[in-house]
Amino acid sequence: MAKPITKAVLPVAGLGTRFLPATKVLPKEMLPIVDMPLIQYAIDEALEAGIDSVMLVTGRGKSIIEDHFDYSHELEQILRRNNKEEELEVVRGFPAAGHLAYTRQQQPLGLGHAVWCARQFVANEPFAVLLPDDLVKATPGCLKQMISAYEQVGGNLVASVEVDPDQTNRYGILDVASDNGSLVEANGIIEKPSPEDSPSTLSVIGRYILQPEIFSYLDRQKKGAQNEIQLTDAIAATLPDVSLHGFLFEGVRFDCGTKAGFVLANIAFALDRKELGLELKQAIRKLMVSK
Ligand code: G1P
Predict the structure, then answer these.
(1) What span, in angstroms and rounded, lies between the C-alpha atoms of 48 and 142?
(2) Integer Cα distance of 40 and 205 in angstroms
(3) CATH number at residue 129
(4) Model's pTM, two decimal places?
C-alpha cells in the first residue's frame, strides 16, 4: 500500500508582478476571493485531504501571511466583546501551532528550487505540492480526489486539465502514453512548450503528489524554461524510475495567476454564496445588457 500523504508544500515566494500595484505591499496569495485570501483556500483544501503538516516556502515581504495564520488578540477581544461569534470563528480558522511551518526561498530561482527548499521538512515521504494561484472549486477538493487516485497508481501524480492549443506555452504539458478516463499515464512532461512543439493539450495545474526521490534530481537540476529551475524538468528526469500520471479531477479550476482567472474565480465563488448569489446574478445580467 502507498504511504499516506500527510505533508504539503506551498510555494508562496513569487512576486506577483501581474497584479501590481495591488501586490506592491500585499503578497499575491493574500488577494481575496470574495472574503478569504487565496492562501487560505489552499490550506483548507490540504487539511480536508488529511494533510497534517504544511510548509509554506515564503520570501521577503511575505510575513503578513504568517500573521494571517496567527491569533489576533486585539481583534478577537473586540469581536468577543461585541458578541460577534461567527466572525470570531472565521478569524480563528487556521491550523493549530506546530502544523504550519515556514522556510524562505532565499533566491528567486524558480518553482523547482522553491520545492527543493522544503526538502528537510519533507524528508523521506511522498508529499503534496499546492500552488495557491490555482484555485479549484470542487467537492471533495482536488487534493482529496487526487489522493484517492494516488492510492491506485502511486508514483508521481499531477492534476491535469485540457487547455486550448494556443495556451500550451503557459503550463507544464503531459506527453500522454495511455489514457484511462480520469487517469492518464504520461511518458513525458515539458514546461511551457510552444503550440507547435507541444506533445498534447493536457496541462498540469498546481496540484502535485510527488515521491521524495524528486529531491535528488532537484539537487542538481539545471535552469530550464524562463531561465528558472523547473519542477517539471525534475519530474521528467525521474521518469525512468518513478511513474507519472495525470489526473483529470472533477471540478473547475481558476488560474488566479491571471487577471481574468482571478476575477472569474471571484464571480464563481460569490455566485455560490447564499447572501450574495441572487443580488449578483441580477446585477451581472443588467451589466451584460448594457455592454
Ligand atoms: C507552474 C508550473 C507549470 C504549471 C503551472 C500551473 O507555472 O511550472 O508547470 O502548469 O504552474 O499553474 P507558473 O504558473 O509558475 O508559470
Answers:
(1) 10
(2) 18
(3) 3.90.550.10
(4) 0.96
Question: Domain for residue 205, yes or no?
Answer: yes
107, part of any domain:
yes
Q: Is residue 206 in contact with ligand 1, taking CB distance under 6 Å?
A: yes
Tens-binned pLDDT, residue by residue, of the chain (291 aa): 678 899 999 999 988 899 999 999 999 999 999 999 999 999 999 999 999 999 999 999 899 999 999 989 999 999 999 999 999 988 887 888 889 999 999 999 999 999 999 999 999 999 999 999 999 999 999 999 999 999 999 999 999 999 999 999 999 999 999 888 899 999 999 999 999 999 999 999 999 999 999 999 999 988 888 899 999 999 999 999 999 999 999 999 999 999 999 999 999 999 999 999 899 999 999 999 887
Number of domains in the chain: 1
Atom 11 of ligand 1 has which residue's CA nearest to it?
Answer: 206
Structural domain including 174 reads 7-257
Ligand 1, pocket-test mutation among 18, 109, 111, most atoms within 8 A of CB: 111
Task: Verify whether ligand 1 is closer than 6 Å to residue 233 (CB atom).
Answer: no
**From ligand 1's centre to the CA of 24, what distance in Å?**
22
Q: Is the CB of 204 under 6 A from ligand 1?
A: yes
Cβ–ligand 1 distance for 159 under 6 Å, the answer no
Q: For residue 274, tell me if it sits in a domain.
A: no
> Alpha-carbon distance 106 to 57, whole Å?
10
Is 110 within a domain? yes
The burial of 143, by beta-carbon neighbours within 10 Å (0-12 exposed, 13-18 middle, 19 or more buried), is given as buried
